[in-house]
Amino acid sequence: MGSGFVKQLTLPAHQITVTTRPVFNLHVGDERSSLASKVASDAALLVEVDVGLQKLMREALRHSPPTPAELEFAISLIEDELMKVHKLVPVNAILETSDTCMWILVSAIKPDAQNEEQLSIEEVEQLFDLLAALPMGRPASIAGIPSDACFAAALLFLRELMHHLNFKSIRAFEPNGFSFK
Predict the structure, then answer these.
(1) Rounded distance, CA 140 to CA 83, Å?
(2) CA distances from 69 to 21, 66, 130 (A)
(3) Which is nearest to 164 in space by CA: 95, 96, 104?
(4) Which of 100-104, 110-114, 176-180 has the lowest mean pLDDT?
């Protein structure tokens, strides 16, 4: 077996090494969020952070759209919490989610999304740029994104999580029974 979070299987006949990357499932809660991964057949890793959507809205994002100062303060709150756990998540890990708030972000980037979509960190960054332009006077309707604090909280959390925990992309699954109607 390999060390850390990377499981290696060596096949002696061909000396082929297969490496599996750990998959972390993201759950964004109201007060806390978590990343859960199965690291072995009988072991799991749960990484929790004291950041949730309601907490971010209560402590930092009080306007719709949030002001530039609120965005900066929310980012600093998220960063402070992520720095406490960043060494627990390996650099090559895969990020997945079926949370409704993350699917709403996916739908803002890919309006025709169906069942499952993958977003790169660059796409998340582009969405953040649209959000950051809202307090400068760009209408949300032109940007094509919601202007509410909950959307901002979800986007900021995802952006900072991907940057600080080195996730290159996120695979999002449409939640069961989800509908914009």
Answers:
(1) 31
(2) 38, 8, 16
(3) 95
(4) 176-180
pLDDT at 178: 59
> Quick check: 114 and 173 in contact, CB under 8 A?
no
CA distance 134 to 11: 55
Q: Are 100 and 175 in contact (CB under 8 A)?
A: yes
Give 92's contacts (C-beta < 8 A, 6+ positions apart): 6, 21, 22
Largest CA distance in the chain: 64
**Residue from 14, 4, 99 nearest 43 by CA:** 4
pTM, to two decimals: 0.83
Rounded to whole angstroms, how far apart are CA atoms 155 and 126?
11
Q: How much of the chain, in percent, has pLDDT values that exceed 70?
A: 81
- State both tokens at 81: 């919490």
CA distance 145 to 104: 10
